[in-house]
Write a structure and sequence with these properties.
91% helix
Length: 100
């Protein structure tokens, strides 16, 4: 794996994390303003929920992008490691949803 490949991966991941946080913050901010002004309670709740989901989905998307990039670079150790992390994340979500 070359330094250029690692640099490209880091740039992709940085953009993804930045976009996820901005998207989440925007949804949460608009939802909070609507909730505080009591302008549209149903819309405010939906936006707040969407903002939280976007915030929680961002690290999962980071792992998925890493998996694709490592596979593209043919770095099989990191493909296996990232796949394991992804399995643990999805198992955690499944267990949490089952206990609701």
């Amino acid at each position: 794996m070359s330094d250029a490949s690692i640099g490209q991966l880091e740039r992709h991941l940085g953009r993804l994390l930045f976009a996820g946080v901005i998207c989440s913050a925007t949804l949460l901010l608009v939802g909070l303003v609507l909730w505080m002004t009591n302008a549209a309670p149903a819309t405010a709740s939906a936006l707040l929920a969407a903002g939280l989901i976007a915030l929680m989905a961002t690290p999962i998307l980071r792992v998925l992008v890493s998996l694709v990039e490592y596979a593209r670079m043919r770095d099989w150790f990191f493909v296996l490691t990232t796949t394991t992390v992804l399995i643990v994340l999805f198992a955690s979500i499944a267990i949490a949803l089952r206990q609701r």
